[in-house]
Amino acid sequence: MPKKKSNTSKASDKTTDVREHPLTVPVSKKNPTGKTVRDRHIRRLPGTDLNRDQILEIFKNYKRKGLIYPTTKKLLKDYKNSDDFDELIALWIDYFSKKFAKQALDPNSVKALIASESSFQVDPKDKRIALGITQITKKTLKILQDPKGEAKEFIF
Predict the structure, then answer these.
(1) What gap in Å lies between CA 63 and CA 60, rounded to an integer?
(2) Which residue segment(s) compose the domain that 106 sits in?
(3) Same domain, residue pair 38 and 52
(4) Phi/psi class of residue 120: alpha, beta or left (left: φ > 0; alpha: ψ in -120 to 50)?
(5) Residue 9 burial (CB count, 10 A)
(6) Residues near 148 by beta carbon (within 8 Å), at least 6 away in sequence
(7) Structurally, how many domains does the chain consist of?
(8) Is residue 4 left, alpha or beta, with left meaning phi > 0 and alpha meaning psi from -120 to 50?
(9) Which residue of 10, 23, 83, 123 could cross-link 38, Cys pair, CB 3.0 to 4.6 Å?
């Protein structure tokens, strides 16, 4: 009999592979300095992880009233599809500003960043280097996934 698929997140969605790193331990005969090296291991990530389905659900059901949109038609001369992402920019700036309880980013600044990073191209030229229209590098993604980092409330 085939197993039913579960709707819950897999454990692998909430873990990360941690590289070898220094670790403080109780001082003992074996470790008189109280320092050792922890081998590579799996760590459960705290915080809220957002998977693709959750991201789509948030976007679909998000209240649009009161969103601050970037200025339209400013970049059309250089980027024909520059206004295509205005709703995404406005919504996610609002969403994360509320979640992080900090001052919102300027939507025009985010739009300018996207223009400079990807020229509003959905598929980057080299996915091994950066991802998406904001061109997040794998190094930056690791920073965003750091449970002690600035985005510790949300693991991407």
Answers:
(1) 9
(2) 47-155
(3) no
(4) left
(5) 12
(6) none
(7) 2
(8) beta
(9) 23
Quick one: CA torsion of 30, 36, 41, 46, rounded to 10 degrees? 120
Cα–Cα distance between 140 and 57 in angstroms, integer? 25
The pTM (predicted TM-score) of the whole model is 0.60
Same domain, 39 and 106: no
Tokens 């020229």 belong to 119
Q: Are residues 28 and 52 in the same domain?
A: no
- Please report whether residue 35 resides in a domain: yes
Q: Is residue 36 part of a domain?
A: yes
SS3 state at 49: strand
d(CA 63, CA 66): 8
Chain-centre distance for alpha carbon 144: 6
Surface-to-core class of residue 154, CB atoms within 10 Å of its CB (0-12 exposed, 13-18 middle, 19+ buried) = middle
Sign of the C-alpha dihedral computed for residues 111, 116, 118 and 121 taken in this order: positive
Distance CA 155, CA 46 (A): 8
Q: Is 21 helix (H, G, I), strand (E, B) or coil?
A: strand
The CA angle 37-40-46, to the nearest 5 degrees, is 105
